[in-house]
Amino acid sequence: MLVKREQTGKTTNKDKRNVLRLFKNDGVELFEEDVKYVKENDVLYISQGEEFNQENVINEFEQKESLGEGGFGTVVRAEHRFTKQQVAMKFVKKDIVQGCVCL
Fold first, then answer.
1. Could you tell me if residue 103 is inside a domain?
2. Least C-beta-crowded within 10 Å: which of 22, 54, 84, 93?
3. Residues 35/29, Cβ–Cβ less than 8 Å
4. Does residue 16 share a domain with residue 42?
């Protein structure tokens, strides 16, 4: 069963063993009443009660080969495991982003 919203707008999960949470790829949580708006090719993420974790999205891609490396990091060719879409993914070096201020 998916998580249901109470009248207050908060989620309830009385039986955590059987609760699944559904998220769109941008991290927006979907509830039972939202499922009717899901399109055929929409990619959704299911958790067993945990919050959405953007880092798990990277696991949908199989890294194929390195395309290059530079001062900021490495670029690799990757393929989406389900859609087979080819993408280039850039992995920025940790020391570059540490201490950065997000605007």
1. no
2. 84
3. no
4. yes
CB 37 within 8 A of CB 28: no
37-73, pLDDT tens digit by residue?
888 777 778 777 888 877 677 778 889 999 999 988 8
pTM across the whole model: 0.47
Count of domains for the chain: 2
Q: Give the angle subtended at the CA of 75 by the CAs of 69 and 79, to the nearest 5°.
A: 150
Q: How far apart (Å, rounded) are the C-alpha atoms in residues 102 and 37?
A: 33
Q: Domain residues for 70?
A: 59-97
